[in-house]
Specification:
The strands form two sheets. A two-stranded antiparallel ribbon has the order 1-2. A two-stranded parallel sheet has the order 3-4. It has 15 helices and four strands. 58% of the residues lie in helices and 6% in strands. It has 370 residues and is mainly alpha-helical. The protein has helices at 2-5, 37-42, 47-72, 81-118, 121-136, 143-157, 164-177, 183-197, 202-210, 222-229, 259-268, 273-292, 295-307, 334-346, 362-369; strands spanning 14-18, 27-31, 322-328, 350-356. α5 packs antiparallel against α6 (143-157), α5 runs parallel beside α7 (164-177) and α7 packs across α15. Belongs to the STXBP/unc-18/SEC1 family. InterPro entries: Sec-1-like_dom3a, Sec1-like, Sec1-like_dom2, Sec1-like_sf, VPS33_dom3b. It holds the Pfam family Sec1.
Length: 370
């Protein structure tokens, strides 16, 4: 869902797709929620696995259609009661089959759009720069930090320039991770941003400084928080993406655990630090088993891991779980909501409910400030 939100065809609750029954120039809005069984099934799946899962769904749907028609095209007499019942059963299945086909077509469109979006150089550059900023930490003299500076300079001065909100997000990230920007560097960025995007953005820059998001110094000690809360996945850590044990393994390209979730885990005394340490050894044992196991057993193992059954979750203990209501004032991201659903599946001590003023992402948050 986080990937879907980055497309220009999406909102928090719906996406626009090409209409199947009218010319391709028209579009229709499709609501994304739990009522769509396919969306509910894949919304939290690692994007690298979504394509394979959709292929399996397509095969199952094709087999279901063949079986339905095969049953109706038997050699029984045309006027027999049995034939009538088979036709009646086929007609009762038809709406459900059409609904599945339409949902599958919509999701295949979304996957194709996300794949095209991921090949854009601007997006890839932003993702790589984000990772460089997070991994380089507060250092401003390292080769990685200099690469970040060159990318930001090129993004602002090139023609056409990078999207304003993408540039500002990277600058805010630099400010937070490094404990602030140097005075001359911040003055240069302000000047160039105004030259490129116009003086109209001055209120946004002023607000960001008041909020301590883009300033000379701030009190946010990211290196300490990163170490204490295990916000970033280690460079040698790995885990089977089909069966993650910790929230940062759900985001393979960044390996970042949302800080709000980590703070909640820490306050509730949840044992998330041991999971990260055990991930590598569990990955080795699972890989060894998969080499010798057959395909059906591997698929079953993957399904159990995705549904939370292999993690020790017992529905009989559901009544004993403590309810935890989490409030987000200002907005919650889709990644954070995904992490909460993951925690609800993977442990049986707490059941999390989220109340938020809105669902947002970085660009939407900046627009609200602007």
């Amino acid at each position: 869902m986080a990937c879907v939100q980055e497309t220009k065809f999406s909102d928090s609750t719906h996406v626009t797709v090409d209409n199947e029954t009218t010319p391709a120039t028209t579009v229709q809005k499709v609501v994304l929620n739990h009522l769509d069984a396919l969306f509910d099934e894949i919304r939290d799946v690692n994007f690298n696995l979504v394509s394979n899962q959709l292929v399996d769904v397509a095969k199952d749907l094709a087999a279901e259609v063949r079986d339905s028609f095969a049953g109706s095209n038997s050699d029984a007499p045309k006027d027999s009661q049995a034939e009538f019942q088979k036709v009646k059963a086929l007609l009762s299945k038809a709406p459900q089959l059409v609904k599945k086909k339409r949902s599958l077509a919509h999701h295949l469109q979304l996957v194709e759009r996300i794949r095209k979006l991921s090949t854009q150089l601007a997006l890839r550059g932003c993702v790589e720069t984000e990772m460089t900023i997070m991994s380089a930490g507060p250092s401003t003299s390292s080769a990685a930090a200099k690469d970040v500076g060159r990318f930001l300079e090129e993004a602002i001065l090139r023609e056409p320039p990078l999207n304003l909100y993408d540039v500002v997000k990277l600058l805010c990230l630099c400010s937070l991770v490094r404990g602030g920007l140097k005075l001359n560097a911040l003055a240069w960025y302000r000047q160039q941003l105004c030259h490129t995007y116009g003086h109209q953005i001055l209120p946004l820059l002023v607000q960001l400084e008041k909020m301590d998001l883009l300033s000379v110094e701030n009190r946010f000690d990211f290196p300490k928080m990163r170490k204490q809360l295990l916000l970033m996945r280690g460079p040698l850590d790995d885990e089977d993406t089909r069966c993650p044990k910790d929230i940062h393994f759900m985001f393979p390209y960044t390996g970042y655990a949302p800080i709000s979730i980590r703070l909640l885990q820490e306050s509730l005394g949840m044992k998330y630090k041991t999971l990260a340490k055990e991930s590598t050894s569990s990955m080795l044992s699972l890989s060894s088993w998969n080499v010798h196991g057959n395909r059906k057993e591997n698929e079953l193992s993957s399904h159990l891991c995705m549904s939370g059954e292999a993690s020790g979750y017992d529905t009989s203990t559901d009544r004993k779980r403590q309810n935890v209501l989490v409030y987000y004032v200002g907005g919650v991201t889709v990644a954070e909501l995904t992490a909460f659903r993951f925690l609800n599946q993977k442990q049986s001590e707490f059941r999390f409910f989220v109340a938020a003023t809105s669902i947002c992402n970085g660009s939407r948050l900046l627009r609200a400030i602007y």
